[in-house]
Amino acid sequence: MVKKLLVVLFLLTAGVSAHSQTGIYGEFSAADYHRPTTNWQYGPTFGLYSQPLGVPFVRAGFDIRGSFLGKGNEKVDSILGGLRVQVHPHVVPLMPYGEALAGVAHVNVGQGSANTTGTGVEYQLVGGLDVTLLPHLDWRAIEYSWSSVHAPHSVTFEPQAISTGVVLRLP
Question: How many other CB atoms sit within 10 Å of the CB of residue 134?
């Protein structure tokens, strides 16, 4: 068991690639905040990722993103960053990925006495699938995210979002 674990650790840490994969992306996101007085929130998500570590079919790195969901009096804006792992099989144009992110969110959700406004901590788990369309252009076919937002006054809520968009992979 220990030998297998050491082999896996070696492959993940020794696989530093001379060619880092970097991409910028834009998505349209829709989020359900699971609060009785809050509607679905829609808006853009923009980000940048870099994956400098890799072995033949797996790349790892980080992602930094900003989401700007909602309009009028109901908005949730967040800036998050964290770890990213992507599987890239090369024989098919599909690239599933997963991310664990953390950052800050400014919230203004709810109505009347159920209104929550302020800045708090947000944690997010993301899973998605990119499809290669052209050598440096991917379609982010689907992305699902689950978050835990710790807003002011001890208010915590767990929004879930789905997104789609485009990724420009830089050479």
Answer: 9
Q: What is the DSSP string of the chain?
A: -HHHHHHHHHHHHH-EEEEEEEEEEEEEEEEE---TT---EEEEEEEEEEEEEEETTEEEEEEEEEEEEEETTEEEEEEEEEEEEEE--SSSSEEEEEEEEEEEEEEEE--GGG-EEEEEEEEEEEEEEEEEEETTEEEEEEEEEEEEEEETTTEEE--EEEEEEEEEEE-
Among all chains, which residue has been given the structure tokens 């030998």? 3
The answer to whether 48 touches 169, Cβ cutoff 8 Å, is no
- Rounded CA-CA distance 129/11 in Å is 23
**How do residues 52-73 score in pLDDT, each as one tens digit?**
998 889 999 999 999 999 987 7
* pTM to 2 decimal places: 0.83
CA angle 74, 78, 83 (to 5 degrees): 150
- Residue whose entry in the numeric block shows the structure tokens 């990119």: 130
